[in-house]
């Protein structure tokens, strides 16, 4: 890693190191946070394998995104914080790193970054581009800034036709715009299976034969609903087990403090990585000891393991959807051929959830209906065959769009140095 940052009263302050290797072409990829980073990593892996002569720089906006870069890519890439979108910061960033191609991911439209790149003759490509109706309305309000910025993009790979239509209306040149699908469909199932086997080995035998519910990527205000529903399930299935994964692990302390959690035996996922002692209601575990029958909840306080842990579940609720956050990616659950529960606030993935619900692979709930729906899925009267069929439909949906990686790779390679 080559860059540094410090937290100030106004946010993260970007500084650069004194090393800027200029001997090779440099491809710069900016992925804001966790979701964007995980989506683009398959393309970065392919780039590293097929273009070893090129250096790759990855920039992040959030510490959690930076941690994913470290975990998944290590020292095979250079890394830095993205500069603030001011003329001076952008100018210093380009002068230091000298990228020959810039790749933005999803909804990253930064006027100074894009226009400065154009002025330096650096092509900028927007991959996995998405633009919701709400975001489009916001950009349209500053059309005088948005339109010339988007006109500078050398290529845009839109997730869907609606995204492409909105981007074109805002100023993207139709000649550089393609609809390629969503990179989040590009899941390496072989690697996922291997990672899951490691997780199962660490957790065994405590999960054997138990109904396991995963509440993934939850936000404040959702854990209480999840635990209320889990309490209803425990009354019917005393051996039921919950894997609770807050979207941001730094919230673990506040989740542990929830009164609804105090009735359960809780163990932290990090306890399987190192000996760990936490609060009174949190089990102490030595490395490799595994879960026991008395454990009720696994609180996922680590980054980078949720995709593999998903394969240990029988049913998945995807968070950020009971509260107006916009939802999170359900495709990892679909890749594991699991039935999916979601709240109604899913504007970030509206098309995907609409498809999954319409084909009977997902069920929409709210806080008040979640307990009853959970019982219908995992309770003592649950229809196992119906749940299996739901999961199979989810898996078929995910796998049917698996060639998205090839389509977006074609857009990228057309502009590689």
The coarse silhouette is: globular
CATH class of the largest domain: Alpha Beta
Question: What is the averaged pLDDT score?
Answer: 89
Query: Helical proportion?
Result: 25-40%
CATH topology annotation of the largest domain: Rossmann fold
Spatial extent as radius of gyration = 22 Å
SS elements, strand count: 16
Through-space gap between termini? 23 Å
Number of domains: 2
The CATH architecture assignment of the largest domain turns out to be 3-Layer(aba) Sandwich
Largest sheet descriptor = 7 strands, parallel
Count of helical regions: 16
Strand order of the largest sheet: 5-4-3-6-7-8-9
- Structural class comes to alpha/beta
Residue share in β-strands: 15-25%
User: Unreliable segments (pLDDT under 50, ≥5 consecutive)?
Assistant: 1-23, 275-288
Fourth-tier CATH superfamily name of the largest domain? Glycogen Phosphorylase B
In short, what is this structure?
With 417 residues, this protein is an alpha/beta fold. It folds into 2 domains: 4-186 and 402-413, 3-Layer(aba) Sandwich (Rossmann fold); 189-399, Glycogen Phosphorylase B (Rossmann fold). Helix content is 39%, strand content 17%.
Could you please describe the fold and organization of this structure?
With about 425 residues, this protein is of the alpha/beta class. It has two domains: about 200 residues, Rossmann fold; about 210 residues, Glycogen Phosphorylase B (Rossmann fold, 3-Layer(aba) Sandwich). It has 16 helices and 16 strands. The strands form three sheets. Strands 5-4-3-6-7-8-9 form a seven-stranded parallel sheet, sandwiched between helices. α12 links the parallel β14 and β15. The chain starts with a strand and ends with a helix.
